[in-house]
Design brief:
single chain; about 110 residues; mainly beta; Lipocalin; seven-stranded antiparallel beta sheet; globular
């Protein structure tokens, strides 16, 4: 579960709940693949995975963001748009674009 909130002019998203937050040894899963060494010993739960999204009122969407995928230890450019009760995140990979659809919880 990701909590998205505005931080000034930008929107950020943080992991607030995980189905499997413990590894096979019962320890919290760490952000071991993070490219920044100082974050590798921190839990994935609580980590910021969306940064720098800015609202674009002309397109009624958010753009200019970065999406971090802890399992890969990689950052991707992203944009977002609301469709009904879903937040659609599009991010760019070397071999094409990918989309995630997240459902809003009440």
């Amino acid at each position: 579960m990701i909590k998205i909130a505005s931080m000034g002019q930008e929107y950020q998203g943080r992991i607030v709940w995980m189905l499997d937050e413990k590894d096979e040894n019962g320890q919290q899963k760490l952000d071991a693949k993070n490219p920044d060494e100082k974050f590798r010993k921190l839990p994935i739960k609580g980590s910021k995975i969306i940064t720098s999204l800015k609202f674009d009122s002309e397109n009624n969407s958010w753009s200019g963001g970065k999406l971090y995928i802890p399992e890969e230890g990689k950052f991707y450019n992203c944009e977002a748009k609301v469709s009904g009760n879903k937040l659609i995140i599009n991010y760019s990979l070397n071999n094409g674009d990918k989309t995630w659809a997240w459902t809003r919880q009440s």
